[in-house]
Structure formats: structure tokens, C-alpha cells
Amino acid sequence: MAHFNQNFLDSIERELPSHLTMDDFIAYSNKPLRLSIRVNTLKISVDSFIELMTTKGWQFDPIPWCSEGFWISNNVEIQLGNTIEHLQGLFYIQEASSMLPPTALFEGKTADITADTRVLDMASAPGSKTTQIAGLMENKGLLVANEYSASRVKVLHANISRMGVSNCALTHFDARVFGEYLFETFDSILLDAPCSGEGTIRKDPDALKNWDNNENKGIVDTQKALIESAFLALKVGGSLVYSTCALSRQENQDVCHHLKSVFGDAVEFMSLSTLFPHADKACTKEGFLHVWPQIYDSEGFFVAKINKLTAVERQQEEPRKQKNFPFTPVKAKQIAELESYFKDTFGITLPKDAEIMQRDLEYWLFPKAITPLIGKMRFQRIGIKLADALKKGYKVRHEAILALPSPSMINLNDEQAREYLMGRDISLAERIKPQGEVIVSYANVSLGVAKHLGNKLKNNLPRDLVKDKIALYP
Ligand SMILES: C[S@@+](CC[C@H](N)C(=O)[O-])C[C@H]1O[C@@H](n2cnc3c(N)ncnc32)[C@H](O)[C@@H]1O
Questions:
Q1: Is 56 domain-assigned?
Q2: Residues 6+ apart with CB under 8 A from 340
Q3: Does any domain span residue 375?
Q4: Most buried among 154, 203, 382, 470, by the most CB within 10 A?
Q5: Are 213 and 295 in a shared domain?
Q6: Active-site residues (predicted)?
Q7: Is residue 169 domain-shared with residue 193, that is, in the same domain?
Q8: pLDDT at position 119, please?
Q9: Looking at residue 31, what DSSP letter applies?
Q10: Does 371 map to a domain?
Q11: Residue 381 placed within a domain
Q12: Which domain holds residue 449?
């Protein structure tokens, strides 16, 4: 049972549109959320995923605003996060309304995404929307994912890696810096802002126990500073989506109006009333989506889409270029060697629209669109680590195997995949000629690398990814 305080209920009563009732708001806030997931199309098609999971008892109910999103039901009691399919990144457990901002950002225009497209996700962790955006970009172009909290950057990186994202650069800043460091650089920006989280009451019944409107002032000031920074970092003609899981006008509409008061006619509010069938039910007069829990039986959410019509003045000087970038481009001969290693050992063709870079003995794959940004800001991590050079040859990195498709893999059954994810070797029924490094897969999607020794597959899963428990469907 959710714990509301009277101040909160009074504020909702003031804000609730006239076609919605307080009784419904309270009833839905007390209802458990429907379980929803998003299929990771970087690894599997929606149809193949539905086919795979239907055999395991899942039932799928499409989420109208996300073609990869589904409410699911399933008769088996299982910890979804511990299933093989989750650990190998076939799906992300994500609340349905949280799938709205990336859909609004691209609004059916994913065909326009090229190797030059630059997207910024300003407040990214744990990465549900970052990985959704990377899926919509099909790993093309550049996605800069920023997160202020150091511990949450680690979770973000783990999720990006699990989902096979290769076009991402991670940064770790207070996102107020983007307007100054990367002025008018991005085609699209998502600001999924830190907020009071009032919309999440269905997940956390205590979320609003001590709600006090006066305590939101600091959050609102941050939101206003962040949206200004986002608008400065946006190219002319680009789009910005501002979203929160807060319900109050102060954290939502007022922040967007603040932006307009600062940048005037350069700011255009785009109506989201036709984003999906019945989107108008949640539309404000400005065209923003204010999703109350009872409208689509979801968490509360707010989404605004803003276009930048004209250039604005830079507010701070361009900072001096930073030196000491530790990566260097790789010579053509070495690239050819690395390409042969990937092709001959794993059947993997390295993508042509990416740059191979070197740091000491490490080889990395960078998205090409990062090049003009080097030195303008410090990046925590760019692209994916491909391999380490050994005295003779190379040693492939796990994240490369998760992100780059291969046509030749050894497919494991449920039991074998469980053994592999628990860090154990897998015995082979027949002894054959040893084959060296091989990719092992489940449902034709890679799990990682093993060494084929003839009678067994020696486990090469990185130790920090080894699990104590894997949930198998009966
Ligand atoms: C609503 S959550 C983001 C959720 C994320 N977009 C997702 O979909 O998984 C807001 C995030 O902003 C981060 N944050 C807080 N203050 C920030 C700031 N000044 N700059 C950048 N990020 C900030 C928080 O640590 C938190 O991870």
C-alpha cells in the first residue's frame, strides 16, 4: 500500500487534468506495475525473441509507443535478471513509460542516422534509455553517454557491454559542462533529468512518505541549468527531449518554459500528440506528454520534445584543447593483421565505419564520429576494447565478442549455457581435433569465448562476470 502524505495529495489534486480523477490516481498508484521488457535488436530480432520466449511460457502484450517493448506475463516463478537470455543481453527489464523518451527523440526518423550522427544522453545510468537509443541507432554514429555518479558509471558500462553497444563514449561529469565543452555539437540530446521521482510510487510505496514540495527547489535549479546546457550543446535543427519521472509542474512544464524564457524563438515545442495511438490522452496544451499512472496503467512520466530553430550565442569561451590523449591510430599493416585474426579465428568482419586505435598493447574500436571531439573533453571510455597484443598473436576481449556478430559459433543447450555462465568448463560428448579459441552461443547469440581442447570447452568468461546462480526455465 502506497504511503501518501496530505501535502502530496493536495498538490496532485491541483495539477490533475479535469478528465482524470483522484480516486483513479490513488487506485492505480496502489496497483503493482505490469512487468515490461524491451527486446535488444542489436542482438536478436523481435520476431525471433518472441518465438524463443514463447516456448518458455512468456506471453507478450505490445507497448504502443515502442515496437521493441512488451508487457509480459509468464506462469513460471523465475528471477528474470538471472536468466541466460537476460545475462546475454537479449532483453532489458524496463518500465513501459521509460521507453517513451527515446521514441520521442527519433520519432520514426531512425533512417536518417548515419556514421556522422552524434547523440548525447546527459544523465544515463543505469542505461535503460542509452541502450534503447543505441538499438535505434543500430550502433551507427556516436552516442555520448554521461553520468555524474561514479558508482553508477560502472553499472552503466556493465549494461552497455551486456547489450552489445559499440558506438558509445562514456563521460563522467556534472552535465552542466556540455554547453561549454561541446557547444552546438549534437544532432539529438536526451536529458532524462535527475528528479524527485514522484512517478515511481508503484515501484516504491515509500517514495512519497516524506514528500515536501519545498524540498524540490534544489532539484528544479539543477534541471533548469541542465536543460540550458543541453540546448547550448544542440546543433541548430537538432532535437532535445527532456524527461522526468516527476509529476509536478515545477519539475516539468516550468523547466521547459524556463528554457523558452532564456532562448526565446530559438526554442520550439514539438507536439507529441501523434507519437502513438491515443498519445493525445496524455498531452498538455504545449504538446508535452504528462503520463499519469492511470492513463496507460504505467509509472508516471513526463516527456517534452524541443527543437532548436536558430543559433544562439555561446555563453562561455571554448575551453582550451586538452592534450595527452593516450590513443594513437593503428598502421595499415597492423590493422590488416588484426582483421585477419578476427576473420580467421571467429569469422568476424570488423566494421568499416569505425576507427581502430591503440593504447600500449590494447586495440580499441572507436566510432568514427568521435574524432572531432577528441581533446575537447575527457572521455572515460570510448567504443569497445577489441583485443590485447600478445608476444605472438592477440587475445580477444569479451566485450568485442558480445558486440560484433559472428556467423560461426558453437551453440550450447540450456544446461551447457548455465555451466558456461557459472564459469565452468563444458565436456564434449566426442573427442575431436582441438580448435583453439571459439565463440560459444545460446539461441544463436554469443555468450563469450572458450578454448576448444578436443574433449572439452575451457571456460574463458571474465571472472567478474561469473555468476553463482543461473535461473533455468523448467
Ligand atoms: C533519472 S536518472 C537517469 C536514468 C537513465 N536515463 C535510464 O534511463 O536508465 C538521473 C541520473 O542523473 C544523474 N545525475 C544527477 N545529477 C546529475 C548531473 N548534474 N549531471 C549528470 N547526471 C546527473 C543521477 O546520478 C542519475 O543516474
A1: no
A2: none
A3: no
A4: 382
A5: yes
A6: 245
A7: yes
A8: 98
A9: S
A10: no
A11: no
A12: 406-465
| Domain shared by 136 and 172, yes or no | yes
Please give the positions annotated as active site: 245
Query: Closest residue (by CA) to atom 2 of ligand 1?
Result: 194
313 C-beta neighbours (distance < 10 Å), count: 8
Regarding the beta carbon of 123 and ligand 1, being less than 6 Å apart is answered yes
Q: Is the CB of 159 under 6 A from ligand 1?
A: no
Shared-domain flag, residues 140 and 157:
yes
pLDDT at 214: 63
**Ligand 1 neighbourhood includes 152 CB (under 6 angstroms):** yes
Nearest Cα neighbor of 124 from 169, 164, 80 is: 169
Coil, strand, or helix at residue 355? strand
pTM: 0.97
Asked whether residue 253 falls in the same domain as residue 340, the answer is no
Both 418 and 438 in one domain: the answer is: yes
- Co-location of 440 and 339 in the same domain: no
Ligand 1 pocket test target in 97, 98, 100, 149 with most atoms within 8 Å of CB: 149
| Residue 105, pLDDT score | 98
ipTM above 0.95, yes or no: yes
User: How far is Cα of residue 96 from the mean position of the Cα atoms in its chain?
Assistant: 14
Q: Distance from the CA of 152 to the center of ligand 1, in angstroms?
A: 9
Q: For residues 96 and 64, what is the distance between their CA atoms, to the nearest angstrom?
A: 9
* Cβ within 8 Å of residue 247, ≥6 positions away: 12, 15, 198, 199, 290, 292, 300, 302
Give me the number of domains the chain comprises.
3
One domain, residues 396 and 445: no
d(CA 132, CA 143): 11
Q: Cell 527532456 sits at which residue? A: 242
